[in-house]
């Protein structure tokens, strides 16, 4: 699946511009700068597919990528960055909200947590929102290369404690790094189960 071609399909600024429902989809969500676009690139092995940046607020639309004609990956704008104008942030939140609650072909949301920062208040708000609407999600830790082994272990335990207290069960946390490639094969295997055909 991930060895095949991957093509940009659509950049969706407003909900009426969503591509038609065809294939299954997996979406990437999380705070601004957590590494959503970088993870999409690492998964597909294409460094310039999704645009990444040091500056939070880079991704401003829902970007759809088609993997081997079998699965759509959806790179979404981040949340929680103070420098993004409020009206912009509200517009993105609205598109994301409508997409996540209404997309029948959405199989999983990868909810990314920066390993350096751990779970923040707005991540908990996202989990609440997703749990309340029964949108299935999985926690993915990013930027694992930034932490020492001991700090990683502590963070993984703290994050597992958070998810264990959730009202619904969630799949195991996957620790990743777009830099070193840690966890990428594991995540590919997980997402592969959602591909059609
Ligand atoms: P927005 O689109 O603004 O919400 O950000 P994003 O979540 O898509 O983050 P993006 O992929 O643009 O990455 C943000 C910054 O983090 C960039 O400078 C990346 O190079 C860096 N980054 C992403 N993943 C990793 C990682 O695994 N390790 C390290 N060290 N840096 C990373
Ligand atoms: Mg991005």
From TrEMBL:
Residue ranges occupied by any EngB-type G domain in the UniProt entry: 22-197
Protein name: Probable GTP-binding protein EngB
GO cellular component: cytosol
NCBIfam families: GTPase_YsxC (TIGR03598)
Pfam family, one: MMR_HSR1
The family this protein is said to belong to: Belongs to the TRAFAC class TrmE-Era-EngA-EngB-Septin-like GTPase superfamily. EngB GTPase family.
Source organism, top-level taxon: Bacteria
GO biological process, one term: division septum assembly
SUPFAM superfamilies per the UniProt record, alphabetical: P-loop containing nucleoside triphosphate hydrolases
Function: Necessary for normal cell division and for the maintenance of normal septation.
Recorded GO MF terms: GTP binding; metal ion binding
Cofactor(s) named in the record: Mg(2+)
Phylogenetic classification of the source organism: Bacteria, Pseudomonadati, Pseudomonadota, Alphaproteobacteria, Rhodospirillales
PROSITE patterns: G_ENGB (PS51706)
Keywords carried by this UniProt record: Cell cycle, Cell division, GTP-binding, Magnesium, Metal-binding, Nucleotide-binding, Septation
Nucleotide-binding recorded as keyword: yes
